[in-house]
Amino acid sequence: MADEEFVVTPYEVRGPVDHDRLREKFGAERLTPEILEGIRSVAGELHPLLRRGIYYSHRDLAALLADHARGRRFFLYSGRGPSGPLHTAHLVPFDLCRWVQEKFDVPMYIQITDDEKFWFRPHLTRSETARWGWENLLDLLAVGFDPKRTHVFFDTRSIAALYPLAVDVAKKVPYSTVRAVFGFPPSQNVGLVFYTALQTVPCFYPSWVAKRAVPCLIPCGIDQDPHFRVTRDIAEGLGYPKPALLLSQMLPGLLGGRVMSTTGDGRDNALFLNDPPKEIDRKIRKAFTGGRASVEEQRRLGATPEICSVWAAWRSKFAPDEAEFTRITEGCRQGTLLCGECKGMLIERVQGFLEEHRARREKVRDYAASLIIDRPPEGAEAPFPPTGGAPASSAGPDGD
Ligand code: TRP
Questions:
Q1: 81 Cα to the center of ligand 1, angstroms
Q2: What's the domain range around 190?
Q3: DSSP secondary structure string, 332-352?
Q4: Is the pTM of this model over 0.70?
Q5: What is the whole-number distance in angstroms between the Cα of residue 78 and the centre of ligand 1?
Q6: Residue-wise pLDDT tens digits, 128-164
């Protein structure tokens, strides 16, 4: 039982995930109290996602913080592969990024990969992934990023900006690496084989533009680590710094499954940002808890928050205040807070959050499209004449 195998790649989560073993398998570091203290000393506090161990692993974060302390500014990067509406677990990296953007005063790059899930899922159409990409982008910006310091790559729109670096990256990544890292079968379409090059580009983009090394920090789920292992292997060979990573655990689903995925388990496993209030009510009412078989037993013995999907929602998002979170956790353990009451509180909290979220989402519509990078910066690629003009000089048919 304890050794039941699990597999985690960006494209598949199978079996009972043991996050500590996963971190070791991937060879990422443990997020230590010393590093958390380093973050706290700059921010003045710790985000609940850090404080409560949901972010639990990293690569090169200590060095990034030390550089920051010496005045070398980094930028943030995270992303989303659209295939449908976002659910609350999708906000984990973006909640943290928003907080880091504010506390460290740094730029944020968001990548919307409307190509990725189109290549991955046989039945998705390209117009669906593009449409969901736009919808997802509005949700992510509604988290509260500073529009003056936030930039978006929307793959099919941004390809002219992404492509020069993707070409450089792709040349360094052997097919055998992609096959081994992602576990692709021989029948895998070449779109997804190439895709990892596109996910790497934003790590290097600001350095490419600035013509100097700009450090990158990527907060993301640990399932994305394989992509960035590839990135980190080739970075220095291309003259760019290796991106630092801040890796989170995957959150459990409402139905008591191990991750909040809706691919296998369906819509009732997650709270979607576009769920109407009565859907939130219905899903939370039927959610898996750590409660006992009877009220009497629960009053006597208490319940088990660690296995409860409702508690996971409080912990990761809906009870940011530490005193309230402790009250909920202790009430649960001691049998004074029963599941029905706890669920009722969460329903109200989630409904309130979604109402505010939707209002913020309407406000970002005005400027969302203007944040999309759609061409490479002037001068990044040397020999082009102004659009429409003739080549300034002829370098010959094979200039180099
Ligand atoms: N591959 C991610 C997904 O499936 C999307 C993504 C693109 C991403 N760039 C990223 C995720 C950077 C985290 C960090 O959703």
A1: 6
A2: 23-248
A3: HHHTSS-HHHHHHHHHHHHHH
A4: yes
A5: 6
A6: 999 999 999 999 999 999 999 999 999 999 999 999 9
